[in-house]
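Reviewers of the previous submission asked for a worked example of the structure-prediction workflow described in the proposal, so we include one complete record here. The input consisted solely of the amino acid sequence. No template or homolog information was supplied to the procedure at any stage.
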Amino acid sequence: MRLLHTADWHLGRAFHGEDLLASQAAFVDFLVELARRELVDGVLIAGDLYDRALPPVDAVRLASEALARLSEVAPVIAISGNHDSAARLGFGAELLARAGVHVRTDPAAAGVPVVLDGALVYAIPYLEPDLVRVALDCDQRGHAAVVAAAMARVRADVARRGGARAVGGGTPIVVMAHAFVAGAVPSESERDLAVGGASNVPHALLAGADYVALGHLHGPQRVGERGRYAGSPLAFSFSEATQRKTVALVELEAGAQARSELVPVPVPRPLATLRGTLDELLADPRLAGHEAAWVQATLTDPMRPADAMERLRRRFPHAVALAFDPQGMLDAPGASYQRLRGLDDEELVRRFVADVRGLAAEDEELELLRDALTARRVAEAVA
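From that input alone, the workflow returned the following structure tokens.
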């Protein structure tokens, strides 16, 4: 059988303030046509259908249209991600399932597969540890613990069905999960799942499936022997400028190892990261190919030019990000911003405390700060 694996649509997200809904609608058109042309037997959406718990109305409308159109081609299985509200996304799930759209947001149902004609698909939504431990009868804390508990339910159900596995015969087993699996490479546009790297899940915890359809990380990549991130269909940060955006076509056959092929997604507008003085960027003929791209420019002028963005947009109308790295001046304006780029929440808070009072936070204070960051993340998850 053939499955189409996609994830991380983030409907409703903007790119540096620019609306992406038209590009996301074009991706839906592409995906429906691909599913129809490839005669797929199922569509897997591995979380983060929306960009936030309360998505805008137009994003909800597009999601509804996408699920309806895809379900006309093949059954659809979708799980909630860390950006989705599980309660809202899962509303009406029983009714949707009757129409061939299986929305799985309940962690306790991880061991109940969606039975396709030729495969068992176990859908594990994003698991916020402090919210799902009770539902999963998990005594330990942390992402690895709750994913292990969910996979224990999967394996128990497989065992009840006679241990069906594709390798060696039987029914192929597919696991969907929205998680940060250790060994994978993140981008700047993903939201941290936990403080201090505690979100990493060893890929060995997901062993036992013939294919693991992953969501959360926006760059397409393999993890372990059978896991794959399909990646996001659009770039959401300039750190993804070199990524080729894809969806995955997966071939499953009893008695054979799963095969997957990445299918490139059309690029509505490329990304370009430029660096130089403003005059250089405005005059360099070699940059003509970037005039239709989303542009992030870093200006190296010793003094910040007046009306820099306005002047830049005369040549690059889709310039959306402007940074300054003055060359030839010490302690130039903007230098502190450059030093803070790319830091995670915990390190930002740690540096803020040290900067404000002149003393580094003590261990007890750091623990309180971590608890506060975790509480904020949990509050967002249940919003």
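The chain has two domains: 2-264, 271-382. We consider this example representative of the routine output the project will generate in years two and three.
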